[in-house]
Write a structure and sequence with these properties.
ten-stranded mixed beta sheet, 26 helices, 929 residues, 30 strands
């Protein structure tokens, strides 16, 4: 039987895109005929719109598949389901995005916009598709262009500008915004249905951010109160934005052109129009922000898993040697790791203390996960629901956070024009509609174009201003600590500074019943979180025989709204005028991101996040006792505020020769929470290419895009590890015919560049397909064969819980699941690389404590590699790519392909694999204010 496509986080959402196929074509046509009668949105006549203060000279471009329009009426959804037709601008950016995979080799500056949009400010008069004055306002217009339908919002007042931004957001993403406010509130199943995927999604996020309505409001009040005039402006902007959103809800409801998903999920009646679409309120924005922050900007966690693997290492090797083994695999500060700040400057953070203090490691076998789900009934408590809950818990508590996103930024000293060039963007996955939306906002104190998360688009979050552009990648430094709170009285009281204190209980009760969109039978459950002053309880254990609860304390917990100030500054042309003011702006963002900047003369980088100052001797890798001596410096539990490391201690730089980032290590001695920052990282794919370009000089927009696109098709294992594996195998003549044939195919693939690319555009078949199949089958076998005999099963298994062994494009066992595009972030490639080079007798900096492959001998290692290679070569394509609900077994191209995961009722075609940002900019400013 074909397997179902595994889904990670957002990939799991059950939506109307998968509603039961009981609607036959005839009945669909009848329904559509009846549904086409509601009033369509009206627009004013087209007007000339001119660009304002644009210093890019036509050299700014961007792309965001599948398309700008993420709303569809019920009639449009039914047409899509029956005939595959697309609403206007729902899919028109997907083709250009996909075509770069085979078109980049002949790219020139003149052809860049065959694959990207022109991101100049404004819309030429002959390109205006529509002009709308939302809700009849005279202080704002929304112009949409013919090519992509992107909203260009121009206001004469600040309120009107933000009202227009809210109205445009609801036009393009209302259903998605509604979904995610319910995800953030832990209410998705009640809103969208009880499918296990929906259960898992709400459980994962609510476990990390279990907020009450009062908590959400308190975060708004705090952000306003602590940020003076800008805080007051942010509140006014948010209220104006919400007024625009709600005005569209009212207009679309009365005009009956609201998203059809509301009908399919039972919230509206397609005949009588009965039912309501709830207005948005300001606390919804905090709920939305908590989801985005948890997905992309909250590095840390995993301390309990770290403790378990450390104890396993110490059990096998003894305390001293076991700790050395653990540290070698942890690679906190690997000297061979690729760095974003590569000028030798050091930014110490998260280092191993000379003498660890306050550690609270669990007793062997005592750890259990704190349950989240209680009082389950029906499909809320069946076997599928239980498995979903376990998977959601594992994802929520892992340090292997969804990183993604990349950046290539080159100083003007190395470019043909003398102006800096940047190719950068966030890798946020692929969804329909997309999580991000494009917009241009021009108004008092705001001048920007770019992408924003749906429902949070009162400002452009990643994009360009008048004479500068900025973007971000996930950084992942540790802002989450695990504390062991000693229990007293019972399992729900703990010692806080010597006083037995009751845990707070936060609950969310959900129930559901079948709908057209989700036929899951009725069910219910209660999500219950026990909160302490040190954060929510995540595990139970004993430490030295004492009963404890392990809690997680995140510096951004109860501060989800704080980052709005930084985004406000980024949009303000009177604030950002230089690399220094850019760095000052992003210092106000408390999530863990790497920020990049380019204008016509300068480039810059800054790593953001509220990095807590830890007590002397505390090792952030492991749980510590919840005692005053081990708390963050000047920590105030009532507000969850503390002393944070100063801006100068965050990795930062201005005008370095080039910057690359693909969630790799930021700088010397700066430790990230997730494992895998070693000698081989996907950041090397960018580093190697950009370094060569800069060495030669004369870099152009086209050549930098080519470097990105080339890296996007590279198999990291084939490019950076496979050559050494083949050295070991070829150290003697390969006499086995099966192994020899496999080696020949692999060598040919390496010689060809080690890419996963179609034979020709649209062929849906890979060049070097057999070699790719062999490596996909071989990698997990060779890793296990190389390391498990030496480490032992228990320690090997523990380490795989810290770091998955593989994340190939078709792999469903990596943190991103299958069909997600992003690949090769997490894996054992660095371990294999260091071990194989050591066996070959090559110099290894920061090596493992011993040679593992084949007991450390070249002949023994060769035997292991050949044995596992023969097994891999014997696996058929159907075994390596077993098929899922999209792909038939054995379809290699399809197994790798990227799917726009349906978060609404509109479906799109899958595209050939690329490992690149979802939203991407190409910028080269020609002048400055």
């Amino acid at each position: 039987m074909p397997r179902r496509t595994p889904r990670f986080t957002l990939d799991r959402l059950r939506t109307p895109g998968r509603f039961p196929g009981f609607l036959k074509t005839a009945s669909v046509c009848a329904l559509i005929a009846g549904l086409l009668s509601p009033l369509a949105q009206t627009t004013a006549s087209a007007a000339t719109v001119t660009a304002a203060n644009d210093y890019c000279g036509g050299q700014c471009s961007d792309i965001l598949p599948p398309g700008e329009n993420g709303n569809a009426t019920l009639a449009q959804i039914l047409l899509n389901q029956a005939f595959g037709t697309q609403p206007d601008h729902a899919e028109d950016q997907l083709g250009p995005y996909a075509n770069l995979a085979k078109g980049y080799s002949t790219l020139t500056n003149a052809t860049i916009n065959n694959f990207f949009n022109d991101a100049s400010f404004g819309v030429a008069s002959d390109q205006v598709a529509s002009t709308l004055s939302p809700a009849g306002r005279t202080d704002v217009t929304i112009v949409r262009d013919k090519k992509t339908g992107v909203p260009h919002i121009t206001g004469t007042t600040r309120y009107g500008t933000e009202f227009g931004a809210g109205y445009a957001a609801a036009q393009d993403r209302l259903w998605l915004m509604d979904v995610f406010r319910h995800v953030g509130r832990g209410q998705l199943t009640t809103f969208a249905g009880g499918d296990p995927s929906n259960q898992g999604l709400e459980q994962q996020f609510w476990r990390n951010a279990p907020y009450t309505e009062a908590d959400l409001q308190a975060q708004i009040d705090n952000a306003v109160a602590t940020n003076g005039t800008r805080g007051q402006q942010a509140l006014a902007d948010a209220n104006a934005y919400l007024a625009g959103v709600n005005a569209y809800i009212d207009a679309s409801d009365s005009g009956r052109y609201f998203p059809g998903e509301y009908v399919l999920t039972g919230h509206k009646d397609s005949i009588t129009n009965a039912g309501t679409i709830d207005h948005f309120k300001i606390t919804d924005l905090v709920a939305l922000a908590s989801v985005i922050g948890a997905l992309f900007g909250s590095g840390g966690g995993g301390e309990v898993n770290n403790a378990i693997s450390l104890l396993a290492a110490q059990e096998k090797y003894g305390v001293t040697e076991g700790t050395k083994v653990w540290e070698a695999f942890r690679e906190r500060n690997d000297p061979e790791a690729v760095l974003t700040v590569h000028n030798g400057e050091s930014f110490p953070y998260g280092a191993k203390p000379d003498s660890a203090q306050g550690q609270a490691l669990p007793d062997d076998g005592s750890v259990s996960t704190q349950p989240l789900v209680y009082d389950a009934t029906g499909t809320g408590g069946d076997q599928s629901a239980s498995a979903t809950a376990a998977a959601a818990t594992a994802t929520a508590l892992s340090s292997a956070k969804r990183g993604m996103s990349n950046a290539l930024v080159v100083s003007g000293k190395a470019t043909a024009s003398g102006h800096p060039i940047a190719v950068f963007g966030p890798q946020t996955g692929y969804f329909a509609p997309q999580l991000l939306m494009l917009q241009e906002i021009q108004g008092p104190g705001i001048s920007a174009r770019g992408a924003s998360f749906a429902g949070l688009s009162m400002y452009v979050e990643l994009g360009r201003g008048q004479d500068y552009a900025w973007s971000a990648t996930t950084s992942g430094q540790d802002i989450i600590d695990t504390y062991a709170v000693e229990l007293c009285q019972d399992d729900y009281h703990y010692l806080y500074h010597g006083t037995c204190t009751a845990m707070d209980v936060v609950e969310q009760k959900n129930s559901w019943k079948p709908t057209t969109a989700d036929d899951t039978a009725a069910g219910s459950y209660t999500m219950r979180v026990y909160r302490t002053k040190y954060g929510p309880v995540e595990y139970r254990a004993t430490v030295g025989g004492k009963k404890v609860a392990y809690t997680t304390l995140r510096s951004s917990f109860m501060h989800e709204a704080d980052s709005i100030i930084g985004f406000q500054m980024l949009n303000d042309p009177d604030y950002v005028k230089s690399p220094q003011t850019f760095q000052s702006a992003v210092q106000h963002i408390n999530y863990t991101f790497n920020w990049f900047y380019a204008d016509s003369s300068h480039t810059a980088y800054y790593n953001s996040g509220d990095n807590p100052v830890r007590a002397t001797g505390v090792d952030s890798e492991f749980p510590v006792w919840a005692q005053a001596a081990y708390e963050w410096k000047n920590w105030v539990p009532a507000t969850n505020t503390a002393t944070y490391t100063p801006a100068s201690e965050h990795p930062n730089s201005i005008d370095q020769d080039y910057y690359v980032s693909w969630n790799n290590k930021q700088a010397l001695n700066y430790t990230t929470a997730s494992w895998g920052d070693g000698s081989v990282h996907r950041g090397n794919l960018l580093e190697d290419r950009v370094k060569k370009l800069v060495a030669v000089g004369g870099v152009t927009r086209a050549s930098l895009v080519k470097a990105m696109a080339d890296a996007a098709l590279a198999d990291l294992r084939a490019e950076d590890v496979l050559p050494d594996l083949l050295k070991v195998i070829n150290s003697s003549t390969v006499t086995d015919s099966t192994a020899a044939a496999a080696v020949s195919k692999l060598q040919a693939w390496v010689t060809a560049g080690g890419k996963r690319t179609e034979t020709s555009a649209g062929s849906k078949a890979y060049a070097n397909a057999d070699a790719i199949r062999i490596l996909d089958a071989w990698w997990p076998l060779l890793v296990q064969g190389e390391f498990e005999p030496g480490l032992g099963t228990d320690l090997y298994t523990a380490f795989t819980a810290n770091l998955p062994i593989d994340e190939s494009p078709s792999a469903a066992h990596g943190p991103t699941g299958a069909h997600a595009g992003s690949s090769f972030q997490y894996g054992w490639w660095s371990y294999v690389d260091k071990d194989i080079r050591a066996v070959l007798g090559e110099t290894v900096q920061g090596g493992l404590t011993q040679k593992y492959c084949g007991g450390g001998t070249l002949s023994g290692c060769r035997d292991v590699l050949i044995s596992t290679l023969k097994t891999a070569a014997g696996k058929t394509a159907a075994q390596v790519y077993p098929g899922d609900d999209l792909c038939s077994a054995g379809d290699q191209w399809c197994a790798d392909s990227i799917v726009q995961r349906t978060l609404g009722g509109i479906k799109h075609y899958n595209i050939s694999w690329q490992n690149r940002p979802t939203f991407q900019q190409v910028v080269e400013f020609t002048s400055h204010r």
